[in-house]
Structures are given as structure tokens and as C-alpha cells.
Amino acid sequence: MTTDPRAAKSYDAMNDSRAIKAYDAMKNLGISKEEVKPVLRNLLKVYDKNWELIEDDNYRTLIDAYFEPMEEKPEEHKRKAPVEDNDKPPKTQQKCIKPFQTSSSHKLLSQRRLSDDERMSSLPSMAARGKKSYSAAASSAGLYSKEPSHQRKNMSSDHHQKKITTHNGSLGASNGNLSIKSLSKGSRQALAEDKKKSVRYVDDITKGSENVKVSLLDETESEDFPKFNYIPGNVIYQCANVNISLARIADEGCCADCSGDCLSLSFPCACSQETGGEFAYSSNGLLKEKFLTDCINEPQAHHYVYCKECPIERSKNESKPEPCRGHLVRKFIKECWRKCGCDMQCGNRVVQRGLSRKLQVFLTDQGKGWGVRSLEDLPMGSFVCEYAGEILTNTELYDRIVLSTSNDRHTYPVTLDADWGSEVGLKDEEALCLDATHNGNVARFINHRCNDANLIDIPVEVETPDRHYYHLALFTKRNVSAYEELTWDYGIDFDDHTHPIKAFKCCCGSAHCRDKKQKGTKSAKTKKLKHTNAH
Ligand SMILES: C[S@@+](CC[C@H](N)C(=O)[O-])C[C@H]1O[C@@H](n2cnc3c(N)ncnc32)[C@H](O)[C@@H]1O
């Protein structure tokens, strides 16, 4: 243990929130905290702890300082894959920094510094100017243009679309530190070859609307980013009847007399009644294993109900609807809400507090387009995100799909039918679904996997006991490692050819894939287990 107060002070400086921000920013460039720490320590010394100088211009000084010795002793400073504290670098993570890897083909590139453009474009843009800068162009107008990479304009550091290109048109002029002349002919050739490759990085696709940023990394630029508007929560499109009023919440349906954290009570309060007198969450914020297991086993229990006149079939053919295909009766989580006396940190308020995990949208390499992964390990029962989108009636959805002229990849709509069994004669404005195609959150990028996905969707009652409307929350079914793709089972029936959205050719890779079109899978033998959505 050190007794030198100065040493203690310097230790704190290396772990305070500004240092953590600097590590995060450098991590986005694939530079680990361990690599940054000594450089940062030196800079703090040199600049007499003047953080502004270090943070200015998106940590430009720090980046410069990091790359400085690399130019002098390239062999000693080869870029490594970013390493999580105390963790081995996962394979996929190494892949993320392809342009800087030190494999033979990339060795030369690994020795060069980033251009001004790269530095500006690859780091969070807020630090230098001390303000948030959310480009309108990055929201409803779509995050990306379709220009070929060589034509793409350089984005200013204020822009949320950031691009790290290995192409370095301004290398010679790059801050005067690494001149293209200083590279061998081989290096220049490698750079020229690599000109075509570039990596797109978006610091936060949520436009600051979530508690945590959701980044986007595209190493291939082979796929355009879909045009959609990021919304952190559900929004009514037009006709949906979502009746949120305090009057609907009965006194026995809330815990007005509670205070603090309901999970710490010796006798669970009224809000636990829905889940059998026990809360679905444990005090560590995770779903209880028993509750999770019951939810996972729901489809096997075959607890389906059949409507006399199914709103889904009615939306397809009002005069002569087909017989109902059945709706799985689901277990609900009920969270405390506004009439409850507990506070926002109550353990029975998880989904309503929103995202808390570091998620990243990335381009999958299995033909599924964009996907989502977590940048941190997620224990079993972790809340990942809710599936947010426009709340539509089934008729609105049907019309939307049928009238759609676009060939865009349609996100799969979710039917909010988890409680249809308790309803008789649902009216159209009560038979609701969520569509995240044009307005949605990060969940709209989560791909489907048949039967053995690592996420499960669970209905959550928050604002209203009226279960025509509820939240659909995604939780981990098992421990999920950082950088593993997150998937959930959309419940698609690949044999249902009457569905207005033509099912995609499934590339989930599961041994239990249900899509018979996929060769080499056991899909034909595997029965459809779920029927929660995607009717
Ligand atoms: C909710 S979106 C998921 C995000 C999507 N991958 C994207 O790039 O925007 C659903 C769409 O992703 C694609 N997709 C999802 N899971 C897939 C799978 N297992 N196999 C093939 N395509 C998949 C399909 O095109 C589907 O319509």
C-alpha cells in the first residue's frame, strides 16, 4: 500500500470520470485502456493536469501522443486488439480493428498514424466543444447516404456519422508527424490497396435519447444503413387505443404505501401479485431463474388460446376471416408505476428505466444484414432492451405492408397478443402490434434465431393494467459473452405462406432452424415452438 499522498492522487486521476471517458474514446479506436494509461499519465504530468488540453479536439493530443512513439519504434508499438480490463480480447473484437491488425498483410498499416480525418471522425464528438451535436440528417432522414465510399464526404467532427477510413488522402500533411515519404514503397502500396477499405463508426445511433450510447460499427461498407427514426419508447401511430390513465389502476393494483425499494420488503407488496406473490426480479437487477425458466418453457407448455374471430385474420379479410391460428398465453412481469410509493431505483422498475448495457449495431457476416451485440458480458436474466416501435392496429399494419412499395428489409412486426385469451371480441383498435421499421429502437436490429436464441421476449405491464397494450422486453436466456451476437426467436412460421410479410430465408445457423428451405439443417424435423408474433 502506498503512503505517498502524491502517488494516491495520481492514481485517482487515472481512474476518474474524465480518464474513463478518455479510455472509452480511445477504445473506439481499438486502443485498450492499458495502452492509453501510460500515455495519459505522461500527458497529465506534462500539462499539469490540464484536462482541457488533453480532451480538446476529440482527444487529439492524446491520440498524437499515443502514436508518437509508434513512429519512432514501430515494432514495439504494434496495434493490438482492444483488451477489456482483466479480460482476454475476444476473437470478434480483434476483428473489429481489421485495418490496424498486425497480421502480415496489415503489418505496415499497423505502423502508421491516423489521419486528421480519422481522428476527428472516429471519436465521440462532444468533448471538444462541450456540447451535444445531434445531426438532424442522422435521424429521420436516415443515417447514411448511399454514396460509394470514395465519394463520401468527410464529415465534420460535429457530425454523428463518423468514418474511420484507412484511406489517407492527407497523410503527408497529417499534423506533420508522419509523412507519406517516410513509408517504404511497400507501405505505400499497402495503403493504396487499403484505400478501398474503410470502417464506418457511429458513436450513438440513439441521438442521445437513451441512457447509454449505442454505437454502430461497419467494417465492410457493403450494406446501407436503413432509414429509420430512432425512438427510445413506443409511440402510437394513429388509431391504436392505448388508454393510460391513473384511474384505471386500482388501489390493489399498485403499492401506494411503499417507499424506497419494494424488493427489500419482508412481505412483497401488491405489485408482486401478478407474478404469484414474488417479484420477477432479484435484487441484483436480473430476472429470477425460476421466472425466466418458466417463460422459456411457455411454448412447450402449448398454452394457446384460439379467438372466435381473430383480429389478425379479420385484418387480412374482413368479410371472410380465416380461423384463428392460436395465441400463446404469456407470463407477464408487472413493474411498479406512478401510483406506487416506491422510488425510481426500486428493484421492481427495470424495463421502465431503459437501456443500461453497452450495445453495438454491427454488420453480420452471415447474410442477415445488421445485427446487435453487447460490448460487455451479460449474465443470464439481464434486461437488454425493449422492442420499441410504432403502436399500430392490426388493420393499420396490414394496410401498411400491403401498400408498401419499398423493397427495404422489413423488421418483423410484433403482435401484442399475450393476453388475448382473456378477451372476447377484440375490437380492431384494441388488437395492437408494434412495427419498428420506420420508427424504432436498437431492438429493430436484433436478428432472428430459431429456437435457441440467446434472448427471450417477455411482456411487461408498466403504465396500464389494460393488456391490449404492454411493453415487450428482451432478456438474456443464458450468460452471453461480450461481442456475441444477440438474437431472439421472432416466432416465425416459415411454412405460413399467407403471412403478408414474406418470410426471409433463414440464415440463423441454428441446428434447430425451422426454415425448411435451408439445406443441411434439421429444420424440417423441428416443430415451430413459438407463436407470439410475426403472424
Ligand atoms: C428486425 S430486422 C433485423 C435487422 C436487420 N438484419 C437489418 O439489417 O436491418 C429483421 C430482418 O433482418 C433479416 N434477418 C433477421 N434474422 C435473420 C435470419 N436469421 N436469417 C436471415 N435474415 C435475417 C431479415 O431480412 C428480417 O426481415
From TrEMBL:
Q: Which organism is it from?
A: Vicia faba
SET domain location, by residue?
Answer: 357-491
- Polar residues: which segments have biased composition? 91-108, 166-179
Supply the alphabetized keyword list: Chromosome, Metal-binding, Nucleus, Transferase, Zinc
Q: Where is the composition biased (Basic and acidic residues)?
A: 71-90, 147-159
PANTHER family from the xrefs? HISTONE-LYSINE N-METHYLTRANSFERASE SUVR4, INACTIVE HISTONE-LYSINE N-METHYLTRANSFERASE SUVR1-RELATED
Please identify the protein, giving its name as recorded: Histone-lysine N-methyltransferase SUVR4
Q: Where in the sequence does UniProt note compositional bias of the Low complexity kind?
A: 133-146
